[in-house]
Amino acid sequence: MAIFRYVSRSTFRANKAFFTKTRSISVLREQNLGSNVGPGQVKIVEVGPRDGLQNEKQQVPTDIKISFVNKLSKTGLKVIEATSFVSPKLVPQMADCSEIMTKITREPGVNYPVLTPNLKGLEKAISVGVKEVAIFGAASEKFSQANINCSIKDSLSRFREVVERANLAGITVRGYVSCVLGCPYQGEVSPEAVAEIAEEMYKMGCYEISLGDTIGVGTPGSLNKMLTAVRKVVPIERLALHCHDTYGQALANIYCALEHGIRVFDSSVAGLGGCPFAKGATGNVATEDVVYMFQGMGFHTGVNLTDLVRVGNYISQNLGRPNRSKVAVALNAKNL
């Protein structure tokens, strides 16, 4: 005998909205091929134009930034984080974000995500045709206050609004978790704290979670403990690693992450970058060094290393500094 229960219209609408939202998140995750890395392949997320340039004290001319992105697009890289839609008062280097996104040449098969920490930034990004955005949280309470001027709890509430609006617009969202292996203000960060933030971002709809060693203090030992905790709550195929090379541990940490099954890695050509709110942190791991290691291990990156080194030389010359990539230094010595 069938049993029927009366369901009010309001309850029906609420349930329908929930399942529609859940399905929307699932579809967007599946449509985004970023994390669906095939056997023997790795995905490199080039963060040079955004994370690499955001901390430059001297304003980099917009035409140089545009040329930088366009040159990277010709190297075989499939994901290039182009700019950041943040407050120009806080990060003046990114004040030309809209102009960059309207003037770069978008190559077929290349994705150009941007950072959008709030709804205002998201709406601005949507207006210039952005297809993927990233939100930026922290596993450290003190770093969250210093970086985005709010608590972790409040930041997650803000991000949830961004993710919901982005999903409605058919835009995929990537989540960054900073200070996963240490904080410049509070020191050690527990693996459990990292796992909690990563899980929240994944549940709210981020298709991929990038775990950032913001100040480069991590070692394979500490990384192993953190990943062991995080992979219990987020599928390994939805995780990425973002290393800084402050203590020369970046490549060792990337190798450790490979052993865990991670196949997505952030890096910056010529080793550019550093967080303006993380004192003492040197640049990101150099994309050239990452590509060289992966190719030597038999992984397919799709990147032309020679072309990549030339782009690193180009931006380094325009910034008036040497290329920080060890591979670039070696190849340049051979008169590349």
From TrEMBL:
Transmembrane segments: none
Enzyme class: lyase
MF (Gene Ontology): hydroxymethylglutaryl-CoA lyase activity; metal ion binding
Gene3D superfamilies named among the record's database cross-references: Aldolase class I (3.20.20.70)
Domain of life: Eukaryota
Keyword Metal-binding attributed: yes
Domain Pyruvate carboxyltransferase: 42-309
The keyword Thylakoid is annotated on this UniProt entry: no
Reaction catalysed by this enzyme: (3S)-3-hydroxy-3-methylglutaryl-CoA = acetoacetate + acetyl-CoA
Pathway given in the UniProt record: Metabolic intermediate metabolism; (S)-3-hydroxy-3-methylglutaryl-CoA degradation; acetoacetate from (S)-3-hydroxy-3-methylglutaryl-CoA: step 1/1
Stored CDD domains: DRE_TIM_HMGL (cd07938)
Pfam families: HMGL-like
The EC number(s) this enzyme carries: 4.1.3.4
GO biological process: ketone body biosynthetic process; L-leucine catabolic process
UniProtKB keywords: Lyase, Metal-binding
Family: Belongs to the HMG-CoA lyase family.
The protein's name: hydroxymethylglutaryl-CoA lyase
Biological source species: Rhizophagus irregularis (strain DAOM 197198w) (Glomus intraradices)
Lineage: Eukaryota, Fungi, Fungi incertae sedis, Mucoromycota, Glomeromycotina
